[in-house]
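Is this the right way to post structure tokens for a design question? Let me know if I should format differently. Anyway, here goes:
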């Protein structure tokens, strides 16, 4: 887990060292890229896909998302044999081309045509290139290449999580754009800032379920029967010391918040929510939310009477200006359904969190510029 945190923090540095983007905007009229959230196409020689190189790539992209009760991969990967990559498949939102100079097959020769042998030979220090909007608008393409299969395998393995994090960020950026394309809940945004001293961009479809001093609960219950029920709650208290970031203290605070405020059935006292720390290990990461020091927590919640449960994603955020500690949480109710995409949506929303001081500073800076 420590290596994952380090890789995440160094992602942008690694990508800038080992990659570059093709220059020149594609100005011709492009259709919109197609594909479901989390879907990714890999184009490479079939023998290499079945060998160690393919396994390393699968390990990067198809490892399971932490904190879910059932195994769901980060990405739904579709393998494409290079000679079958056509004008329909090339409109996909996410594409990875993989090529090495030592591949002698027709597939290896074909996929090298998307990168060129010359470029691979002239850039022995690189193994990754990114490109936007090559065949379709809103498309992200990654090229992985090397002089030999062994060399490329080693470089991908050595720079663990770089490929995955590239597409995680790409998918999050797309998700944020789509979430706020329709009407944003400006009124709710302003209520959060005025009554709770923090700001969060709330997309259409969410409503305030509960609002009282020190606690607010937002909910998107879905519009049809059986829809995924997506929830966000935020609570806060004065920051005292570093003990607040102790893992046991974090879970204890979450349980205190949910026991007092969130019920599956208000008429059943035993239906309150609590974190399940036994059946699925809780995942803790150190991160930042818009510059604020934070702890990320992923795990499973259940009701005390075991009637229902699901995944949650939390951030414990320190506001150094006000010396307040914010607990941001997104949880999903969706029995028997995949939950990766819903958790990704909640993650995108939670990452729009800003403190009141940050909002006021931004307004002041804008006023000074004008």
């Amino acid at each position: 887990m420590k290596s994952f945190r380090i890789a995440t923090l160094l992602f942008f540095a690694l990508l800038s060292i080992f990659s570059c983007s093709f220059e020149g905007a594609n100005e011709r009229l492009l259709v919109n890229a197609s594909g479901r959230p989390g879907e990714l196409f890999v184009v490479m020689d079939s023998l290499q896909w079945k060998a160690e190189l393919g396994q390393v790539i699968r390990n990067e992209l198809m490892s399971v998302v932490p904190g879910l009760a059932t195994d769901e991969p980060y990405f739904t990967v579709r393998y494409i044999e290079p000679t079958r990559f056509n004008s329909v498949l090339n409109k996909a939102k996410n594409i990875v081309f993989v090529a090495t100079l030592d591949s002698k097959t027709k597939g290896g020769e074909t996929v090298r045509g998307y990168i060129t042998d010359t470029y691979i030979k002239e850039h022995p220090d690189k193994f990754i290139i990114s490109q936007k909007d090559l065949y379709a608008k809103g498309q992200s393409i990654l090229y992985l290449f090397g002089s030999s299969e062994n060399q490329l395998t080693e470089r991908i393995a050595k720079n663990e999580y770089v490929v995955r994090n590239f597409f995680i960020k790409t998918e999050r950026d797309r998700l944020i754009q789509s979430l706020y394309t329709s009407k944003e809940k400006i009124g709710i945004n302003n209520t959060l800032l005025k009554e709770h001293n923090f700001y969060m961009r709330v997309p259409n479809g969410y409503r305030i379920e509960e609002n009282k001093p020190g606690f607010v609960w937002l909910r998107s219950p879905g519009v049809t029967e059986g829809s995924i029920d997506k929830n966000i709650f935020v609570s806060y208290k004065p920051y005292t010391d570093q003990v607040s970031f102790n893992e046991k203290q974090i879970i204890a605070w979450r349980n205190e918040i949910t026991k007092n405020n969130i019920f599956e059935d208000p008429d059943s006292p035993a239906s309150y929510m609590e974190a399940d720390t036994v059946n699925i290990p809780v995942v803790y990461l150190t991160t930042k939310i818009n510059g604020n020091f934070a702890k990320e927590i992923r795990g499973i919640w259940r009701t005390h009477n075991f009637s229902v449960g699901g995944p949650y994603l939390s951030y414990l955020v320190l506001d150094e200006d006000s010396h307040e500690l914010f607990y941001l949480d997104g949880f999903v109710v969706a029995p028997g359904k995949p939950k990766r995409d819903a958790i990704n949506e909640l993650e995108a929303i939670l990452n729009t969190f800003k403190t009141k001081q940050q909002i006021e500073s931004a307004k002041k800076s804008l006023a000074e510029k004008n």
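Format looks fine. Someone answered above. Worth noting: The two ends are 46 Å apart (CA to CA). Residues 2-179 form one domain.
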